[in-house]
Design a protein that fits this description.
The chain has helices spanning 8-14, 28-36, and strands spanning 2-7, 18-21, 25-27, 50-54, 57-58, 68-70, 74-79. By secondary structure, the chain is α+β, with helices and mostly antiparallel strands. 21% of the residues are buried.
Length: 84
Amino acid sequence: MIKLELLGGVKKAVGRSSVILEEASLPICEILTLLRRNVKEPEVLTPNNILIAVNGVEASSLDGTDTVVESGDTVTIVTVAHGG
């Protein structure tokens, strides 16, 4: 079981603050693909618009979207805030 915590615009796009995936392991890119299937604005879930952490560690310091998430892990996904 993989727990997804969704914050900000991701939460709004998906319509929930969390999602449980029953898979034993998945790369982040496949998790994003699964999430995109059920949202009205899939562009919210592009890697340039979000920050992803696996167990509190930012995914870009791991293997980016190729990072494999295992059962028991928590993935936090939040939209990047743009100002200006």
